[in-house]
TrEMBL record:
Pfam families: Radical_SAM, TRAM, UPF0004. Residues 47-164 form the MTTase N-terminal domain. Keywords: 4Fe-4S, Cytoplasm, Iron, Iron-sulfur, Metal-binding, S-adenosyl-L-methionine, Transferase, tRNA processing. The lineage of its organism: Bacteria, Bacillati, Bacillota, Clostridia, Lachnospirales. [4Fe-4S] cluster 1 binds at residues 56, 91, 125. It comes from Anaerocolumna aminovalerica. Monomer. This is tRNA-2-methylthio-N(6)-dimethylallyladenosine synthase.
């Protein structure tokens, strides 16, 4: 499921590597292709790899790019870490993301002892932090390659350097204004795909580490985005998810500025594309023209993820979110007036420094007023280097946990109530997979992101079908195919 086809056999590996990208990477990929072939012949089996993604959809997309490069040079993907090349694409948004990575590294070391040819690479957001790289350099000597978020495209060159030098290769960039196009990418699903429309973040919410590890906001050119989607559609994709930390500020930094709403209008025109999703929307930049475009669109899904983070205007100010409780509720009103049936989801942080019972009640109030279809709730996690980490009024863990549980109950009750509203109706679902608990059932996703399980044959995977939502089971439906 490769969208870009490069004929590596036509790339010359004689002489020095070209300076420009992506030609430079094609050169290293061609060199590695020869090496992989030789090595496989020696071993009498293909070389295998696995990428493990920690973190968000941007990371998942980056992992697809890594997989694309490795497949192009002849590695074969496997689903076990007993592989010849294991890549951990890490996340550092909350402390527990880091803990998980350290926890699993010891296990990787034990695998490497059994397979001396095994290579281990760490990349992604966690690697953009100096303390992490220092710790790995000192205490995890068996790691072969460390790189960051800005030079994902360089995997082939880094792997080549590692094979040449036999030493740990560390290449972390502090930032970049470069966007390298035209490298391979290996999609996880044939029928749906993520598409980066921008990289980085300029918002500096005071709790958040993303702007430090992902760098400044950069939008891709609309022509490149449209071309990528058209190629994907020609290759069987019917649903895309446009990705960015704040898609609503898309296009501001382009030579020819363009709004996100305008980009959506262009994407809507792509024939054969059936569904458009996007994330994430920052409430401060969500325009009335975007609401209008969503309302009139035949392809944009009936779902909006609109992270609120907190319902307290005081905390929102301390979080640097740039909207008040009232402005958020007013925005939700405008969205619901235009699209009464829309499914809204959100992210909420509990235990941000300075949070009082009163602030928490404001958050509960917003949850009750908006009535989210679902909400991702997080306990505040202190990230070194962010302004919130040095705020003096950190909330006690016990207090935060108690509030967290109260919030969770509220969110789940509302969610179960809302999901039920479509019971008995017929809706279109994109069939995604065979149900992993009962193989006689298929699992499909509705426009509003809710799942439905129904009897059917696997030939329907990747197709949009009409399903009667016979019975609501809390957060999902059991249904029947409507012929
Ligand atoms: N760009 C997206 C969010 C990316 S991070 C946006 O602005 O909506 C995903 C979610 O992780 C955030 O929405 C926030 O709720 C949560 N998060 C980020 N930093 C956090 C921290 N330090 N502690 C707890 N949750 C955090
Ligand atoms: Fe983090 Fe805020 Fe940027 Fe989202 S918008 S990635 S929460 S800084
Ligand atoms: Fe994590 Fe990086 Fe995404 S920190 S949430 S993987 S942008």
């Amino acid at each position: 499921m490769d969208t870009i086809s490069i004929d590596l056999n036509k790339i010359s590996t004689a002489g020095e590597a070209p300076v420009n990208e992506p030609e430079r990477q094609y050169y290293f990929m061609a060199k590695l292709k020869e090496w992989v072939k030789q090595k496989s012949e020696e071993l009498g089996r293909p070389l295998t790899f696995i990428t493990q993604t920690f973190g968000c959809q941007m990371n998942a997309k980056d992992s697809e790019k890594l997989a694309g490069i490795l497949e192009e040079i002849g590695y074969v993907e496997t689903d076990t870490e007993e592989a010849d090349f294991v890549i951990y694409n890490t996340c550092t948004v909350r402390e527990n993301a880091n803990t998980r990575v350290y926890g699993r590294l010891g296990f990787l070391n034990s695998l490497k002892k059994k397979n001396p040819d095994m290579l281990i690479a760490l990349c992604g957001c966690m690697m953009q932090e100096d303390v992490v790289v220092e710790k790995i350099r000192k205490s995890y000597r068996f790691v072969d390659i460390i790189f960051g978020t800005h030079n994902i495209f360089k995997l082939a060159e880094l792997l080549y350097n590692r094979l040449q030098s036999k030493r740990m290769i560390i290449d972390i960039w502090q930032g970049t204004d470069q966007i390298v196009e035209d490298l391979p990418s290996e999609r996880k699903y044939k029928f749906k795909a993520g598409v980066n429309i921008m990289y980085g973040c300029n918002n500096f919410c005071s709790y958040c580490i993303v702007p430090y590890v992902r760098g400044r906001e950069r939008s891709r050119n609309p022509e490149d985005i449209i071309k990528e989607i058209k190629d994907m559609v020609a290759d069987g994709v019917v649903e895309i998810m446009l990705l960015g930390q704040n898609v609503n500020s898309y296009g501001k930094t382009l030579d020819k500025p363009m709004t996100f709403a305008e980009l959506l209008l262009e994407i809507e025109k792509i024939e054969g594309l059936e569904r458009i999703r996007f994330m994430t929307s920052h409430p401060k930049d969500l325009s009335d023209s975007l609401i209008e475009v969503m309302k009139n669109s035949k392809k944009i899904c009936n779902h909006l993820h609109l992270p609120v983070q907190s319902g307290s205007t005081k905390l929102l100010k301390a979080m640097n979110r740039k909207y008040t409780k009232e402005q958020y509720l007013d925005l939700v009103d405008r969205i619901k007036t235009a699209m009464p049936n829309i499914s809204l989801t959100t992210d909420i942080i509990i235990g941000f420094p300075g949070e009082t019972e009163e602030d928490f009640l404001d958050t509960l109030d917003v949850v009750r007023k908006v009535r989210y279809d679902s909400a991702y709730t997080f306990l505040y996690s202190k990230r070194t280097g962010t302004p919130a980490a040095v705020m003096e009024t950190q909330v006690e863990e016990e207090v935060a946990k108690e509030r967290f549980n109260r919030l969770l109950k509220e969110v789940q009750d509302i969610s179960a109530d809302l999901t039920k509203r479509d019971e008995g109706t017929v809706q279109t679902a994109l069939v995604e997979e065979i149900n992993n608990q009962d193989s006689s059932l298929l699992t499909g996703r509705l426009s509003n992101n809710v799942l439905v399980h129904f009897p059917g044959c696997k030939e329907l995977i990747g197709k949009l079908v009409d399903v009667k939502l016979a019975e609501c089971k809390g957060f999902y439906y059991l249904g029947e195919l409507v012929e």
